[in-house]
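Appendix C. Worked example: DUF6938 domain-containing protein
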Amino acid sequence: MFRKISKAHVIAVDMGYGHWRAALPFADLTGGEGILAADNYSGIPSYDKHLWEQSRVFYEFVSRFKKFPVLGNFVFALFDKFQSIEEFYPKTHHLEGPTFQLKQVYRLMRKKSWGEHFIDQLNANPLPLITTFFIPAFMAEYWGYAGPIYLVIPDTDVSRAWAPLHPSKSRITYLASTRQVALRLARYGVRKEHIIYTGFPLPYELLGEKKKKAKTILRRRLAHLDPENVWRHKYALLVKQYLGVLPKEKARNAPTLMFAIGGAGAQEDLAVHVMRGLAPRIKKKSLKLIVVAGIHEKLAKFLEKLAKELQIKTGENKALHILSAKTKEEYFISFGKAIQETDILWTKPSELCFYSALGLPIIIAPPIGSQEIFNREWLLDVGAGVDQKDPKYVDQWLPDMIQEGVLARAAMQGYVEVPKDGAENISRFVTG
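Step 2, the predicted output written as structure tokens:
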């Protein structure tokens, strides 16, 4: 089924964008095989595909349903309870037991042979296996994968569902995005020698050789985020230490804001507020707005229709760009290009919070679920993100944030505090 490759199998799942985004930096390790989808590969048994599809559809439904008053919050809270993360303090010595969700995964493997076919195919060439979602890792271990198993954690903290049924007996090696993840896994009972702190894997094309590209883009970005040179003057020594002496001239272009709608499409209403609120500035070309619709065709068409109602022309080279694509592959290519032109990223605190390492200030949209609540806290702790204010008045508070240097400060904090070497560290560790 799979071609022989040189270094590793790289596995993701089609559930949102996060697991694919974390897998993309390792595509060059696959020797042309490409990233494999555990839930959508050639020859997948119909029952396995059905199980994966049920999980995806249910997650997207619950995420969208959350916006409905009262009942939506109740249903989502019930769902989120099964994958929630407990507060880290006070420190205790007891181990958290397997969650209901985790027990169900193992029950389906035991009763329905879920994942056996996939692992059998991979075992024909048992190279190191890198996956960015916990279920393929558990499948590989349960069905006797002959090669080493590596699980990349694409968040700032991790729920008990990510640790196997019997953590102390597992041979899965965890590649932790933060030190908090490493501490949490140890608390769940994962052996310390199976936990490696690596950082989150950022795409090489955004960093460049020796991180020079990210530094060059940040130098330009700071001019847009600090047009009066107030923040750069105040923190000149810090800026010089990390970026060298910056040119004194003011920004030549208007700042670019990217608003990223999540993979489940749950923040459509917020996108409407953003477009309506910023319409006057977009028309005056004092701001460029990129709205990321991803591969949601209906959503993209809806946003294009809204743009027409607001009498704003859209396009990649226009002041308003609705970024959409027909496939994930096309989407990630377009996103990679657009993020290099972006000065401010407005998003819910998903795996994109790690893009703050590039010097991208994050405006934090309301988190969806326990995982994103912890991601938000992490962003605020490192100083790389700020909470959004009332989106109805974005045309007032966003310019103030720029004028006061709030976003310039967040950009520099992320660049200084958040590791950038995750992909390099993981590749080196896996391939030796």
